[in-house]
Amino acid sequence: MIPPFGPDGLLPPGDYEATFDELRRSILVGGPVGPSASPTWDAAWRGQLVDNLERLTRQLWQVGIREVYADGSFAEDKDHPNDVDGYFVCALDLLASGRLERELNLMDPDKV
To answer: Is 29 exposed, middle or buried (0-12, 13-18, 19+ CB in 10 A)?
Structure first.
């Protein structure tokens, strides 16, 4: 479960495991409620960011990468973050050899 934002506009420190459906229903997409709700919160845009994150994550899963983390301004109370920052854990040789990039590009002709 993803907790509410703290007074500084950030999530409390930690890792929060969530399915994509849970992420779509979370404060990160729906925004804060009550007195801290913002009238300019862009839930539609944040939902699109989750769609893109899910697409990439599923591709990473297909090549054997299991640890994928999302953060950046998407994980803050910013009304319209530009993107989702993140990282994944993989073997160095998979990345350094270019094999990861080749495998991902083969499965996605759009190279998103």
So the answer is: buried
**Which residue type is seen at 17?**
E
Please name the helix (run of DSSP H) or strand (run of DSSP E) that holds residue 92, with its range, or none. Answer: helix 92-96
Range of the domain at 34: 20-107
Instruction: Determine, yes or no, domain membership for 2.
Output: no
pTM of the model: 0.89
User: What 3-state DSSP class applies to 7?
Assistant: coil
Instruction: Say how many domains are in the chain.
Output: 1
Q: Is residue 89 part of a domain?
A: yes
pLDDT, one tens digit per residue, over 39-77 is: 999 999 999 999 999 999 999 999 999 999 999 999 999
